[in-house]
Design goal:
By secondary structure, the protein is of the alpha+beta class. It has one domain: Outer Surface Protein A, domain 3 (Alpha-Beta Complex), CATH 3.90.930. α2 crosses α3.
Length: 96
């Protein structure tokens, strides 16, 4: 399966909050926040996070980033792939 065809959903072990214009992601382990691994997202990462819904493919998300931000298709693909790879490694998202 091509990476752009993959679909991700947010892990149930993550709590996210939007504070002002930023998203903060906090992993929850055994009902306790893992404060050593808090993620603060920039504008592009926050938008990618909003688009992860268990239905959209990576390609769909990439296209939305391309359309909404002033980047090339290649830059959008690179940004989306890098961010999703980090989230997957951190078990913040999982493939459907």
């Amino acid at each position: 399966m091509d990476f752009l065809d993959k679909v991700y959903k947010k892990s149930d072990s993550i709590v996210s909050r939007k504070i002002a214009d930023e998203y903060v992601l906090v992993p929850i382990k055994k009902n306790v926040g893992d404060l050593e691994n808090i993620y603060t997202l920039n504008e592009v990462a926050a938008r990618i996070w909003e688009l992860i819904d268990g239905k959209r493919s990576v390609g769909d998300i990439q296209m939305r980033i391309y359309q909404e931000f002033e980047v090339t298709v290649e830059q959008a693909e690179k940004d989306v792939k890098e961010f999703l790879s980090k989230l997957e490694k951190g078990e913040i998202i999982e493939r459907k």
